[in-house]
Amino acid sequence: MINNLSVLAIIPARKGSKRLQKKNMLKLKGRPLIYHTLNASNKSKYIDNTVISTDANDIKTYFQNYKKTTFIDRPKYLSGDNAKTIDVMFHCIKKLKLEKKIFDIVVLLQPTSPLRTAFHIDKALEMLVKKKAYSIISVCKNQHPIQWSGTLSKDLSLDNFFKSKDFNKSNKELISTYRLNGAIYIYKSDRLEQTKSLFDRKKSFAFIMDEYESIDIDTKEDFEFTKFIMKDH
User: Fold this and answer.
1) For residues 183 and 118, is the Cβ–Cβ distance under 8 A?
2) Quick check: 214 and 183 in contact, CB under 8 A?
């Protein structure tokens, strides 16, 4: 609880994954990938309850006795590649409401961000309260200027690529840009139910994280790189 507001964390963890099979249970530092997110959630000063939405029996078995953790069975229609995260969240919220469990704040924590910690979660929640925000979403700085990016035609011609005047500017002259890093999404529950969107422009603020903390595991290469990084920390 923070500022008398109850806090729910939702961790979506389906068993299917096209690019990296069963990634949520792959071992990082001797623990399943999803463990690092669940551990961060349970170490948060403010999160009251953590829900794992899953269709994977191995995840439920492994974490069945984990503190402050509830499992919600993820139905088949929300377990495919085209399932939307917002629908998974509302499925969890609806299930909890049937049990008279209602929360003021909802935190979405994707299990593919193992370097996001309880510290980051708590600072982002404090930011929500301080700014009286409807939502807080984590981002990190683009390391290479997006202004140096462009599109290519089918014949790979660079005719249109260099049309921007920004190609003539140095890195220091260009305005910094940021990207979503997928680590933390925080919402006031009533506003989320009103907008039914993860990207509400009104009273929404960015929580900036370092690039190192922003690793998001989607591929085997991401996973192997993260294993290498975490050996030294």
Assistant:
1) no
2) yes
pLDDT < 50 regions, the chain? none
pTM: 0.89
The answer to whether residues 174 and 126 touch, using CB atoms and an 8 Å cutoff, is no
Rounded Cα distance between 137 and 207, Å, is: 6
pLDDT at 19: 66
Q: How far apart are CA 23 and CA 186, in angstroms?
A: 24
Interacting residues of 230 by C-beta distance below 8 A, sequence separation 6+: 28, 29, 114, 115
What is d(CA 151, CA 174) in angstroms, rounded to the nearest whole number? 19
137-170 exposure pattern, b = at least 16 Cβ within 10 A, e = fewer: bbbbeeeebebeeeeeeeeeeeeeeeeeeeeeee
H or E stretch covering 108: strand 105-108
